[in-house]
Amino acid sequence: MLNIPIEEEDSLKRLNSSKIFKERNKNFGTRKRVKEVFSSDDEILKKIFDARAAKTLGGCPHCERPFSLFKKIPKKLAFKCKCPYKIHPLKGTHYEQSRTPLTETVELIYELFRNKHGVPATALQRADGGDYDTCLYNLHRASDWMGWSLEGQKFTPGSTIEFDEVYPKAETGLGEYYKFKRGKGSERTHGILVMTERDDPEKGIKGITKAFHFDKTNSKEVEALIKKYVRPEDKHKICTDESDYYTFLSYNGYLHHTINHGNKEYINKETGCSTNTVEGCNERVKTTIHRVYLGVHPEYLQFYINRVAFNHSCRAKNFFEVMDVLFNSLPDFYNCVVRKAKRKSRKRKKKEQYRPAA
Ligand SMILES: [Zn+2]
């Protein structure tokens, strides 16, 4: 260790981090470069085929030729073996029955990842044309794919994880003049649990983020979510604030540190405990839901949070690395189990609403 005083060490760290941010923004990937790399539907389909073929064991189920000998069928979204066995690479993904071109979906993901607070469906409609409902559905579908890829990723054992909750407002249908309660117990706020893993360059850990919509009235739900995704055997160091939700951690074999925000304590220099990394993600959740998407329906809240969590967990990556993460999250050819985003049926709801009483 060099004998540098603490203040100078901090300023050195800040200089280094500003350099890193500048380089990240330079290498992010411009629109021109993205159009060059993902120039046609065939190229994107080939990438999806390669990513899924690498996960599938063996080769063609009929003649056992390897997948590298398969050829693209012209004017169709399929690949063919020499024996006439066909494989449709989009089957089992979110874009199975989609009619929007793949180049457009890549552009949409680029827009969603470039703007860290999200893009509203109206902005998409203005730029590309088409129906509003289709734009909204495409947006939900892309966010669902991001959530799907996050579900496959796991926290690295031995890392530091921070937990925190946010309470953004959502649509209630109770009207403008309803007297809502204030604070946590309010009818218009929804609970969201955010788990963020800290970056650790010494151990080579690149942290990921997961976020979940939970029922505020059920106190056991937070416990169940944490037990599902974080195991005590992995020996994570866990940092939280003084909330009651996390008291079960120390009885269940987790390494738990708390920080008391009530006493204006934000970082503990002895234990290294702080929740400042999660607060960064919480701020993003609030700004997306309050400032960009004014009034999100609670049924679709998880889609918006998925996108925020995905953007936060890929914060150190450029766009091409992000597309690789998404392609690699797809399942193999035969186990196609992907849940699908629901399509919002606005017209049907309106008809039911205005039906005259008998
Ligand atoms: Zn074959």
Which structural category fits the helices and strands?
alpha/beta
Number of helices: 11
Number of folding domains?
A: 2
Q: Tally the beta strands.
A: 8
CATH architecture title of the largest domain: 2-Layer Sandwich
What proportion strand?
5-15%
Alpha carbon gyration radius = 23 Å
Q: Which strands sit side by side, in order, in the main sheet?
A: 6-5-4-7-8
Main sheet characteristics: 5 strands, mixed
| CATH class wording of the largest domain | Alpha Beta
The low-confidence runs, each spanning 5 or more residues with pLDDT under 50, are: none
Mean pLDDT: 86
Shape: globular
CATH topology descriptor of the largest domain: Nucleotidyltransferase, domain 5
The topology string of helices and strands comes to HHHEEEHHHEEEHEEHHHH
Helix content: 25-40%
Distance separating the two termini: 83 Å
The hetero molecules present are:
zinc ion
Features:
358 residues, 2 domains, alpha/beta, three-stranded antiparallel beta sheet, binds zinc ion
Task: Please tell me about this protein's structure.
With 358 residues, the protein is an alpha/beta fold. The protein has 2 domains: 137 residues, no CATH class; 150 residues, Nucleotidyltransferase, domain 5, CATH 3.30.420. Helices cover 40% and strands 9% of the residues. It has 11 helices and 8 strands. The strands form 2 sheets. Strands 6-5-4-7-8 form a 5-stranded mixed β-sheet, sandwiched between helices. Strands 1-2-3 form a 3-stranded antiparallel β-sheet, covered by helices on one side. Strand 2 and strand 3 form a beta hairpin. Helix 6 crosses helix 9. The protein is globular, with a radius of gyration of 23 Å. The protein binds zinc ion.
